[in-house]
Amino acid sequence: MLIDDVTFIPLQAPIPSGKAYGMSKSLATARATTLVRLKLANGIEGVGECWGMPQVNIAMLPLLKSYLVGTNVHDIEHAFASMLARHYHFGVQGPMTWSISGIDMAAKDAAGKLLGLPVHRLIGGKQSATVQIYASGGYLTENSARDFEPQIEAMAKAGHRAVKIKIGVSPDNDEDRVSIARRILGPDVEIMVDINSNYTLDLARESITRLAPYKIGWVEEPLAPQDLAGYELLQRWSPVPIATGEALYTAFDFKRLIDRRAVDVVQPDLSLCGGFWQGKQIAQLASMEHIRLSPHVWGTGVGLAAAVHFVASLPVYPHASNIPRPTLVEYDLGDNPLRDAILVNPLGQSGGAIVVPDEPGLGITIDWNAVERHVVR
Prior knowledge:
This protein has helices at 54-68, 76-86, 95-115, 119-122, 144-158, 171-185, 201-211, 228-237, 250-259, 275-288, 301-313, 337-340, 368-373; strands spanning 3-14, 21-22, 27-28, 30-40, 45-50, 130-137, 140-141, 162-166, 190-194, 216-220, 242-244, 265-266, 292-293, 328-332, 353-355.
């Protein structure tokens, strides 16, 4: 049960020239992440995924290994707590927490394989055999006027019943994009929008006023993550639910937001917020304040598998047999070889749902030959 080694593998998949896509603040020219490989003394291996710049994560690894090698895999959360306590000058926002996140995923994967149990059984039990997804697309591109409608048409053709699109260029442009999406998708598809923190409070209000008639499911990251007072004012005013959290770290960050009830939907990213270790605490905080949760996912198939296990383990409280709106997992539609191609058995969605794996650990198998093709040298 002792951890024998931890390695980080930097991955990058360039996006072809002219095909960059992304958000209101920038477009992505590559998809990059850090794959974690954690090995136990008996040879069992677990995998995880870290957000952030791979080079920075790799620089953190010697410090982290000094706490982890020789630690019982079931005791790893105590090692994480020691890291945050002793190195408090680093803060929780940044590479130490990114790295902890991926290592925790890998540790839970290894522990599940050791015990013959899926991760969802280790972190709360299996509440559901499937999890519902929303399709995340409608990206801004180098030529959004040309590319937007085909993205939405593809969503409609695929039959997605809940989708998220990128906005945040301007309130005028927001309404144009949402009106197009509503026309193509029809009246019954739930549409969420993502501003990626590009607005101030006044601009967010102007945009939401324009979008409310289109029956928007939530407005994501309308403000900068540091603007807690702005979120509190916006949530009190907005006729549309407010969602945020992908740029928040550990339960400490989320507690400040949740205590003020400045949000309607919290969105922890397990590859960034502290893995399952912190994800469980964030979910408990949200549950105690009766706030919805929907994990952010924008990485590899490893992070997607982690989010599926996480959501499958969450109680449906305060609901019972009637669940008005299920907890949704983000399912990225962007061109991303790191999501499916590095897995032997990728978690595909069907009918708006993903079947929760019951195999030990995360229930995924890495194609190491495919991984090798994307390693950054």
